Amino acid sequence: MNACNLKTGFVPIVNSFERRDGAGSIGWPTLSQLTCAAPETPLDFRRSLTNFAAINLRPKPKRLLGHSRKRWLALLCALCAAAALTGPVAAQTAPVDTHDRFYWLGEQNKASVAMLAERGISTRDLAAQIAESIKQVIADAAKPGAPRPGDYLEVEKSMIAVGGPEVTRIHSGRSRQDMGQTSFRLILREELLSAYERFIEAREALLKLAESNPNAILPFNTHAVQAQPTSLGHYLGGYLEALSRESDRYRETWARVNLSPLGGAAGGTSSFPIDRQRLAKLLGFDGVLVNSFDSGQVANLDVGVDVSSLAASGALTVGMLMSDILMQYPNPRPWFQLAEGQQTGISSIMPQKRNPIGLENVLRATGEVSGKAVTYLIESQNIPSGSGVYKSATPIEVTRASREMYQATADVLGALVFYPDRALERVNEDYGATTELADELQRDENVPFRVGHHFASELVTFGRANNLKPAQLPYAEAQRIYTKAANDFHLSQTKLPLSETQFRRALTAENMVQSAEPLGGPQLAEVERRTTAAYRRSGLACRDTIETRGGCAGAGRRACKFDALNTQSDGPARSGRA
C-alpha cells in the first residue's frame, strides 16, 4: 500500500454548555468544541486542509473583572457564528486538491470577522450580520452556474445586497492588495502540497522498482557509451538521492510560502488594531510576513522564483531519468520496458511497434514545467514595486504543471518492467569490467596503474577487432598483450601475474560490482543501507505532508451549525485608535 495513504477527516459536532445559577460559573467551551472534531472513521486526508484553529474563550480570572456574563456570552455567540460559516455540504465532503480565488476570499472573510470580533473592533451584532452575509454569499455561489468572482469588490457587492452597507466594516484595515497576495499564497500552498504528494508517489514508485531486484547488474553510460556495470539498486538509488534533495527543497520552499500577508493592507497597515498573527493562525499560516511593504509589494515576486526554481530542478531530474530509459529503448531487448497498456501505443502501419508514449508524455511534461518556470523568471525582470505586472499566476501554473509531471512519472514507473537477464546480457557484450582488471593488477599484484590500464585497453582493442566478447578472449592472447605492455613500460617482470581463473573472474560484471569498497558504491551492503535510508526519508516525507495538511487552516472545512444570535447589543465597537 502507498505509504501516504493515511487518511483523516472532520465531522460536524455542536457541544452545549450549561449555566449554573447562584455561585456557580459558566463552563466556557473552546471554539473548536463548537466547530469540528477529528473522527476515527477514515476519510480521504486530502479533504482536510483543515480545521479552524481553536479559540479558547475561557476567560482568565483578572479579565473577568468588569465584564458581564451576558457580554461574554454575546461575544461567544458572535465568534461561534463566524467560525461556523460553511460552504455547501458537497464542497466539504468531496475530495479536492485545490480551491479557487472565490473560496479563499470567503476564508479570509471568515478569519477577518472572527478576528474583528475577538479584538472588539466589531460589535457582536455586527459580527453576526457580517457572518450571515458571508454565509449567504457562499451558499449562492455554490448554486449551479452561479458566478464565483475572484475580485473582493464583486464579493462585497453581494454581501451588501444581503446585509446592507454596514457589512463592509469587515474590510477595516484590509486592502485588495493584501487580500490578493494572501489568496495567491493560499492557492499556491495548496498546489505545492498537491505537487509534493504526487512527488512522493513518484519517489515511492522508483523506490519500489529499485528494491524489486537491487543486486541485478545493468550498464550505465558516459558520453552515451557503456561505461561500467553497476547494480539496479545503486543506479536507481542515485536518482533517489536527487529526489531526496528535491524533497528538502520542497520543505525549504514551503517555509517561505506559508507566511501570511493579510492585515498589511496596501503596504502600510492601518490605524485599526488588526491582529495579523491571529489572521495568520486562522488561515493556517506558519507565521506573518512582518514588513507590510514587503508582504504587499515585494515578497510574492521572489516566492514565485522559489517555486518556479523548485519545479524546474525537479523537471531536470525526472527528464534525465526518463531520457536514460528512452535511450536504451531502441535495443531489440531493452532491460527497462513498459508493460503493454496505457503507457504504450501501437502503430497504424507497423504491427511490431509498441511505442513508449508514457515516456514521451513525461518528457513533454518536463519541458512544459521548465518552460513555464523560465517564463516567470523572464516576465518578472525590472518590475517596479507596486506594479501589478509581476503579480501573475505563472508560479501557480508552474506548480500545477509539476504536479502533473510527477503524476505521469509515477504512472510510468508503475508500468515499467526491469529484465535483469537482458541487462546482464548487454553488460557482457562489452568491456565495462576491464577497469576492475586494471585495478586488480595494481591492488593484488603490485602492477603500476598505467601499465595495467594500458594492458586492459589493448585487450579491448584486440577483442573488438576480432568480434569477441570479454568471456571469449583467449587467455594466451591476454598473456601476449600483457607482456608487450610490460615491455613498453620497461618492467622487469613481463609475465601476466593472473591465472586464467583469476583473469576470467576479473572480467565479470558481478565481480566488479561486489568488489567495490568505498561508501556509496554499488556493492550489496551499501545498496541495502541506502535503500533503508531512502525508505526512512520517504516515510518522513509522507508523515510531514499529512501533518501539514492537518495544520493548514481550511475554515470552509468546518461543517458546523450555529444557533440564532442574541439580538441584544453588546455596546459600541472599538475605535481604530484603541
The radius of gyration is 33 Å
Number of helices: 19
List unreliable stretches of 5+ residues.
Answer: 1-96, 553-578
Q: How many β-strand stretches? A: 8
Overall number of structural domains: 3
CATH H-level homologous superfamily name of the largest domain:
Fumarase/aspartase (Central domain)
Largest sheet: 2 strands, antiparallel
Walk me through what this model shows.
- This protein has 578 residues and is mainly α.
- It has 3 domains: 11-171 and 541-557, no CATH class; 180-427, Fumarase/aspartase (Central domain) (Fumarase C, Chain A, domain 2, Up-down Bundle); 434-507.
- It is built from 19 helices and 8 strands.
- The strands form 4 sheets. A two-stranded antiparallel ribbon has the order 1-2.
Question: Can you summarize this structure?
Answer:
The protein has 578 residues and is mainly alpha-helical. It has helices at 61-64, 69-83, 89-93, 101-119, 124-141, 152-163, 176-212, 232-257, 276-282, 292-328, 357-379, 394-415, 420-428, 434-445, 449-465, 475-488, 500-506, 509-514, 524-551, and strands spanning 11-12, 36-37, 217-222, 225-231, 259-260, 287-288, 336-338, 416-418.
